[in-house]
Specification:
Shape: rod-shaped
Strand content: 15-25%
Distance between the termini: 45 Å
Pfam family, one: HTH_1
Protein name: Transcriptional regulator, LysR family
Order of helices and strands: HHHEEHEHEHEEEHEHEHEEH
Helix content: 40-55%
CATH architecture of the largest domain: 3-Layer(aba) Sandwich
Keywords: DNA-binding, Transcription, Transcription regulation
GO cellular component, one term: protein-DNA complex
Family: Belongs to the LysR transcriptional regulatory family.
CATH class of the largest domain: Alpha Beta
């Protein structure tokens, strides 16, 4: 028995004759009769009293019709709910602070794009602070940014934590260290990410705890520029743990900072006052899975 059989039965109840019900259902009388016989055989009792000009329900049919109407109502509500869920699907606007896409395998990102079809993943790279403002304003659905994050404004899903690195040219005394001794950075010149990235302020705060203000020669929006300036000018750079980039940068050495206060902790954010749909909750989990 299926929902089509239920529809046949209820239509026959309403029309009272096989001919009228068959016409309404756009099937043959023989096909309708077979469907009703199949239902009666399945439940083990006749549903209609035959032999009259118009059909009448048997006592079993009177019981069955109540359940059939209830099942039809449940099915209709289920279809309506599923259609509303389908309508909730939409293109996902995801912002990532610059450098984060380099921490993701390209094949995994492509798998996420395929899983969202026919919806699209609209991915933009931005800065930490811009990412947060775009999420708060609703310009993007989700953002991947550096901690700390205002948890009154954003719902957060921690993604990963990696060391921050000092970047030094090969042959520089710093390149021979196992861990960065921050005190020895006094007097060095630095190339850092732009002020719109949280690591800029975090690095300044780290240096101030050691009693000095860093001498910043240049800031940039591009990670690769940091590495080039280290090679060209002998400056010290500060970078996140980005293996895809680090492996393609001969001539520089990456030395980790040995402090939990200065680390690359990234988190997935959405607006705290936004109620995510079931579809968006599913996408949120898929995005988080990219970083596992």
């Amino acid at each position: 028995m299926n929902f089509q059989d239920i529809t046949y039965f209820l239509t026959l109840c309403g029309e009272k004759t096989f001919s009228a019900a068959a016409d309404k259902l756009f099937i043959t009388q023989q096909g309708l009769s077979k469907a009703i016989r199949r239902m009666e055989n399945e439940i083990g009792a006749p549903l209609f009293e035959r032999g009259r000009k118009t059909l009448a329900l048997t006592p079993s049919g009177e019981v069955f019709v109540r359940y059939a109407q209830e099942m039809q109502g449940i099915y209709a509500r289920m279809r309506d709910h599923m259609e509303r869920l389908r309508d909730e699907r939409h293109n996902i606007r995801l912002g990532m602070t610059m450098g984060v896409p380099l921490a993701i395998q390209a094949v995994e990102l492509e798998q996420l794009r395929r899983a969202l079809r026919p919806c699209e993943l609209e991915l933009t790279e931005t800065t930490d602070f811009s990412c947060e403002e775009q999420v708060a304003s609703g310009a993007i659905d989700f953002g991947v940014t550096l901690e700390p994050v205002d948890q009154k404004r954003f719902a957060c899903v921690p993604l990963l934590s990696r060391p921050m690195y000092a970047v030094a040219p090969q042959g520089d005394p710093l390149a021979r260290q196992q861990r960065v001794d921050v005190a020895l950075l006094r007097g060095r010149r630095f190339v850092l990410a732009d002020r719109q990235f949280k690591c800029y302020g975090q690095f300044h705060e780290l240096c101030r705890r050691y009693g000095f203000t860093p001498d910043v020669a240049e800031t940039t929006m591009e990670t690769l520029v940091i590495y080039r300036r280290c090679l060209e000018n002998g400056w010290i750079g500060v970078s996140a743990d980005l293996p895809r980039v680090m492996n393609d940068c001969p001539g520089v050495v990456f030395v980790p900072f040995d402090t939990v206060e200065f680390a690359w902790n990234i988190t997935l954010i959405s607006a705290a006052d936004r109620q995510l749909t079931p579809f968006e909750q599913s996408v949120q989990k898929d995005i988080a899975a990219l970083f596992r």
